[in-house]
Design goal:
Blueprint (H helix, E strand, L loop, with lengths): L1 E10 L6 H19 L2 E6 L6 E10 L2 H17 L4 E9 L1
């Protein structure tokens, strides 16, 4: 079994409150969950208005499948116009 974890650090330039930030993140997390069937959670910077870290996790019996799913997740995040992708860290276990 291969577990893949992708942590993406985001800048949300249009956010002027925690409520606005949560709205953007909720939409992005729902999109990832529904399109890719992955687990997604906000894992850092919960108290900052314009910064966030999401952790995206998937499990498979093959590393190639995990790489593919996490690559698609990165593309979905990068295509989201309301956020800027600051950093990506991918780890397979």
């Amino acid at each position: 079994m291969v577990v893949g974890v992708c942590q993406v650090e985001l800048h949300i330039p249009g956010s002027s409150s925690l409520k606005a930030k949560r709205q953007v993140l909720r939409s992005l997390k729902d999109k990832l969950r529904h399109r890719l069937n992955v687990a997604v959670s906000e894992t850092d910077y919960q108290d900052l208005w314009q910064r966030a870290q999401l952790s995206i996790v998937t499990v498979s019996t093959e590393a190639a499948v995990v790489h593919s799913v996490l690559s698609h997740a990165q593309n979905i995040v990068a295509a989201e116009g309301r956020v800027d992708l600051v950093d990506i860290d991918v780890e397979l276990r």
